[in-house]
Design goal:
heterodimer, A: alpha/beta, Nitrile Hydratase, Chain A, two-stranded parallel sheet, two-stranded parallel ribbon, globular, B: mainly alpha, Cyclin A, domain 1, 5 helices
């Protein structure tokens, strides 16, 4: 797993985008936005509202769905049968995309990726993390998922099948992690606190019942 | 066929690559604006997600690797808007120059 000559996928430095001087592309974005506003194609308020909607979406939405499924087996059945409709039940609209929820069990562990770009269940998890969009993750998740999982500190026993789901622009996957032991009788809100973004991508498991919840 | 590439640059599933760096960053304001532009333009049917992807996948491999994520997006959005005649390359270039001058004056 040492460096490979093809490994130049993270040559671009996303972290610099917010620290350094405005890049030529930041100017390009501003230029296009200003022209579109002047032409009346969109308004500054439209842009602000779209950004507010983006900021309001995040893993807490997916966590609500997972916690509901752990708490309510009838909801879980509906979630696995039709993720888009089950999201709508909780007031979460998938827009033009279809949501397919894949369940981790004692026999199967699921992992999601988008090898071609960055397709991600944004409506229930928010914006994807940089590593999800990186060359190493996109390249390797499909052919050596256990090595990738180990890099996240997640070791899946050999007798558990690992299934990798390659997302498309139209079809987005979400992992339903296994419910942690020792959570019998927990409220949905308490259960939701154990559901991390990474556990719904499949690179980690849900928090254990005894793990302190990060406040970040 | 031997000199025909079997896959394009963005089609990287299964290729060797290094460790996954668990990097992430909070999106800068301009990155969120670019994301919002695509959301609004696709809602109006002006640019479809497939068209965004076509523009990104058409980037030469070195540019694909060099550009940041939303840099690829705004490159593609701009190209699609020019292609569709919504705006012109000259309008964009003029406005970029105006913005650069504005930034210089504010410094």
């Amino acid at each position: 797993m040492t460096g490979h000559p093809h490994d130049h996928g993270h040559a671009h430095a996303p972290a610099a985008a917010e620290d350094g001087p405005p890049s030529e592309y930041a100017r390009l974005g501003r230029a296009v936005r200003e022209i579109l506003v002047e032409k009346g194609i969109l308004s500054a308020a439209d842009v602000r509202r779209a950004i507010e909607a983006m900021d309001a979406r995040g893993p807490h939405l997916g966590a609500r769905m997972v916690a509901r499924a752990w708490h309510d087996l009838a909801y879980k059945a509906r979630l696995l049968a039709d993720g888009t409709a089950a999201a709508a039940e909780l007031g979460i609209e998938m827009g033009p995309t279809i949501l397919k929820v894949v369940e981790n069990t004692a026999a199967v562990h699921n992992l999601i990726v988008c090898t071609l770009c960055s397709c991600y269940p944004r409506m229930v998890l928010g914006i994807p993390p940089d590593w999800y969009k990186s060359r190493p993750y996109r390249s390797r998740a499909v052919h050596e998922p256990r090595s990738v999982l180990a890099e996240f500190g997640t070791v899946i026993p050999d007798d558990v099948e690992v299934r990798v789901h390659d997302s498309t622009a139209d079809l987005r996957y979400l992992v339903l992690p296994r419910r942690p032991a020792g959570t019998e009788g927990w409220s949905e809100a308490a259960l939701a606190s154990l559901v991390t973004r990474d556990s719904m991508i499949g690179v980690s498991l849900a928090r254990s019942a005894h793990e302190p919840v990060e406040t970040a | 066929m031997s000199d025909t590439p079997l896959r394009r640059h963005h089609d990287m599933g299964g290729l060797p690559a290094g460790r996954v760096e668990r990097a992430d960053h909070v999106l800068a304001a301009w990155e969120k604006e670019v994301d919002a532009l695509l959301v609004l333009l696709s809602r109006q049917g002006i640019i479809r997600v497939d068209e965004l992807r076509r523009g990104i996948e058409a980037l030469p491999p070195d540019a694909y690797d060099r550009l940041g994520y939303y840099e690829r997006w705004i490159h593609s959005i701009t190209a699609a808007l020019v292609e569709k005649g919504v705006l012109t390359q000259a309008e964009v270039a003029d406005r970029v120059a105006t913005i650069a001058a504005r930034e210089e004056a504010e410094r």
